[in-house]
Amino acid sequence: MRLESNLEYHYYHGLPDSEQKLEEDDQSHQWRITGGSTGNSCSKKPRLNRYALACAVLASTNSVLLGYDIGVMSGAIIFIKQSLEITSTQVEILVGILNLCSLVGSFLSGKTSDLIGRRYTIVLAAATFLVGAILMGFAPSFSFLMAGRVVAGIGVGYSLMIGPVYVAELSPAISRGLLSSFPEIFITMGILLGYICNYALSGLPANVNWRIMLGLAGFPAIVVAIGVMAMPESPRWLVMKCRHQEAKQVIVKTSETEEEAELRLIEIEKAAEQTCPSGEIFRGEGVWKELLLKPSPAVRRILILAIGINFFMQASGNDAVVYYTPEVLRDAGIHNTKHLVGVTVIMGLSKTVFVLISALFLDHLGRRQLLLVGTAGVTVSLATLGLGSRYLSMSDDNPTWAITVSVVSVCAFLSFFSVGLGPITWVYSAEIFPTRLRAQGSSLAISVNRVVSGIVAMTFLSVSEHITFAGTFFLLSGVMAIGTVFFYLYLPETKGKTLEEIQSVFQDELIKHRVVC
Q1: How does the average pLDDT of the chain come out, rounded?
Q2: What is the pTM of this model?
Q3: Which domains, ranges and CATH numbers included, belong to the chain?
């Protein structure tokens, strides 16, 4: 078979000439879009593998936990402040501590998943968050509530890394963008669910409603822990453990034909031979040395890009804006608590719709194009929100049109974020690392994500008090303008390529850079 021989040449002899490489990429792409068929079948529409879809849904359900916490805390914090009589500084700490503690889970998740597997790490994430939800729901004091947030944060950190990695390793190349964006879809659905719970429970006494809001997060965790047990293990993790027959069984179920499954298995095994040439079982050893101490030029570039996209995702201020939307809207002139919570529901719906649109077009339009559109839109939306907030702060009567501009700007910000940075950060972080480095490399990048998210969430109100909400939004807009330029200059397109082929993309980029220089 011509394609198989090309793949063998690629793995044993390095990168081919540019024309041969283009020919092989075209053949590989043709093989995938026709489901492994041959002949004149270009018009055949690729099918979404149902088994891979079901596994992606189950693995990504963990992300509901983070989304629900983000959404529900935006409303619960109003009642927690009343019930426990805490200060604005304590509010910032309470909100941001989950993100900072998720750093611990994110950092540990890479090594953990290399040792016990992707599937059991998902179970561990759900179980940890369940304990945190129980502690928060029954918290008698601020310190007890903080303890629950710490435990829940560790669970969130585990789930943020392992969900996208598992889905990326399981999915066929032609649908990996869609399936790997499911974590962001479920985060967004969780945010909407949290908003709805806020609205439904806001009429209850202030010392009761927030406990129910936070405690309800335990139910999705139970569903995840049970459902994940029916999922298979990642085929790439199984190959790294020399369990080739089990890997083949999983690949067959996630492929449309036996031929396609054989081809995918050949690619995975060849890549595994490069990382474990003597055939020993991989246990995650030596990865940090390859990532940080002695990285190859391609690995260094991958790490910079993974950290960069995770940094800009949270430097956009998305989590902080979602957490503190009621505060922002109150500053804009909306003071009725029921109205504040109602507007957040509208925002949640807008965010959900656009993340679904992005997911559906991610494998067709590609990561790069949607990311550039999304970040440019976020930049403009934040600048517009800053102008609206600035006008309202200078106005005595808070005109309706200015409030409307601010509300629409927030909705536009969340929508553009959901088109670009929201889903694509998880997709990109999970797919660009080599198999050997993927779990721990992704955990490092997502740890940066969590640190930046925690810092922004814990300083958002304080910074806004010093430079106003308008000044904060202008600052975030400037950061996102830099992010847009960074993505335009440095992020290559990865759509339609297998995880193994993506490594060649980064090698090619380095070769082109040397030629230009």
Answers
A1: 79
A2: 0.74
A3: 50-235+287-501 (1.20.1250.20)
